[in-house]
């Protein structure tokens, strides 16, 4: 639940950012498609080539099932990476840690 909530937050940002910012260059050089030519929102599905969508699905699948498939200590969502991937930054006191995790769930 936490992971998919965070993915949803990134998706919302990803929906808003293209309104104000576009990458320079080509999305698909072989098709002559520039990033600036891709419309915002759901209309982008019709412009991006199928191979591009397949690349994204493959990348997300690789990330989901290969890179972060392991459970370090059996606790859901704890991959032993620390905060933002920096190890050694966790709450040592069990009561404070439980309170912090519950606050994150309630957020």
UniProtKB/TrEMBL annotation:
Pfam families per the UniProt record, alphabetical: Chloroa_b-bind
Chief subcellular location: plastid
The name this protein goes by in its record: Chlorophyll a-b binding protein, chloroplastic
Keywords: Chloroplast, Plastid
Entry keyword Transmembrane: no
Localization per Swiss-Prot or TrEMBL: Plastid, Chloroplast
Cellular compartments per GO CC: chloroplast
Ranges where the record places region Disordered: 86-107
Organism (species): Zooxanthella nutricula
Keyword Transmembrane: no
């Amino acid at each position: 639940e936490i992971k998919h909530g965070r993915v949803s937050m990134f998706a919302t940002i990803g929906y808003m950012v293209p309104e104000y910012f576009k990458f320079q260059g080509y999305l698909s050089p072989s098709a002559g498609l520039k990033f600036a030519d891709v419309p915002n929102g759901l209309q982008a599905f019709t412009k991006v080539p199928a191979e591009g969508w397949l690349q994204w699905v493959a990348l997300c699948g690789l990330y989901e099932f290969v890179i972060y498939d392991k459970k370090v200590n059996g606790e859901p969502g704890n991959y032993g990476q620390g905060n933002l991937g920096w190890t050694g930054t966790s709450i040592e006191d069990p009561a404070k840690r439980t309170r912090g995790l519950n606050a994150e769930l309630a957020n």
